[in-house]
Amino acid sequence: MRAVDYPQVLQEVEACWRDVAPASAMTLAPHDNLFEGGADSFTFIRLVRSVEAACEVTLPLLEVFEDPQLATIARCVVEARRR
């Protein structure tokens, strides 16, 4: 089992965000709403899929969609790794 380190996971999620984010949304903080910050549904799905591949987990899409923040995605990765 991989070690679970929230700050490291958040950095991984942020790196995925930088790979898929529109230029206007690059500077989001972890608790900013991704949709209010410039993401659309397609970008959001690309982010989730990128995080799943990078972190080797499956994320609960409904949960991260209902609270679309980088911090929420990172928390879900940590929870998935603990299972």
UniProtKB/TrEMBL annotation:
PROSITE patterns per record: CARRIER
Gene3D superfamilies named among the record's database cross-references: ACP-like
InterPro entries: ACP-like_sf, PP-bd_ACP
Pfam families: PP-binding
Chain ranges of the Carrier domain: 4-81
Bilayer-crossing regions: none
The protein's name: Acyl carrier protein
Organism of this sequence: Micromonospora antibiotica
